[in-house]
Amino acid sequence: MTTVAIVYHSGYGHTAKVADSVAEGVRAAGAAANLLPIEGLTQDFNAIIDAVTAADAVIFGSPTYMGDVSAPFKAFADASSKAFFTGAWADKLAAGFTNSHSYSGDKLHALQSLSILAAQHGMNWINLGLAPPNVTAAERGEHTLNRVGSFIGLMTQSDNASADVAPPAGDHATARHLGERVAKAAIRWAKGAPEA
Ligand SMILES: Cc1cc2nc3c(=O)[nH]c(=O)nc-3n(C[C@H](O)[C@H](O)[C@H](O)COP(=O)(O)O)c2cc1C
After folding, report:
1. 152 - beta bridge partners?
2. Each residue's pLDDT tens digit, 52-72
3. Beta carbons of 21 and 177 less than 8 angstroms apart
4. Which of 10, 99, 101, 167 has fewest C-beta within 10 Å?
5. Structural domains of the chain ordered from first start
6. Is the pTM of this model over 0.85?
7. Is residue 63 within 6 Å of ligand 1 at its C-beta?
């Protein structure tokens, strides 16, 4: 079965909830979702690295901390140099998501870090593929898809509230869209792969 790995860090649970919604989208498209949480800076990342190597596609997720990916996600990215040296992730599909408190909050910079990580591994980056909403500020609400209006990847925004309610429903629906989009692409990609 086509497998999509979802490697993410979440300090306070919001990005983890988004990762769950991304996984729902992956499953809805008929692929397997392998959720791989990063627990901290000093963990052994080998199991996650091997799981990404075994997957057809990977979706990276991190909260935006100080305008970039979180330190534990960066520790994982640095540890992934092991796969860089062998080309183990080359030609896989990749995508990314980030969650932060502010409407912008410099989330773009975090997504750029994720896409550069994918590029360094020779992976093929899949963008969000969802037009920003053409609505007035008054119409933009908690159910709006791509509420923050991102192209390169998924941005979600959570107020200082419990991860049970923030980010809001529209952001979770957008996360399911990303998971579905990447899984459908991975299924097509796997069909066209040359015989090993
Ligand atoms: C160390 C730290 C740095 C942060 N930096 C930013 C930031 O640059 N931009 C922003 O909008 N929010 C920032 N925040 C807020 C978080 O992005 C926000 O609380 C987010 O929901 C946390 O996700 P998590 O629960 O998955 O850790 C920061 C929070 C922390 C703890």
Report:
1. none
2. 999 999 999 999 999 999 999
3. no
4. 101
5. 3-191 (3.40.50.360)
6. yes
7. yes
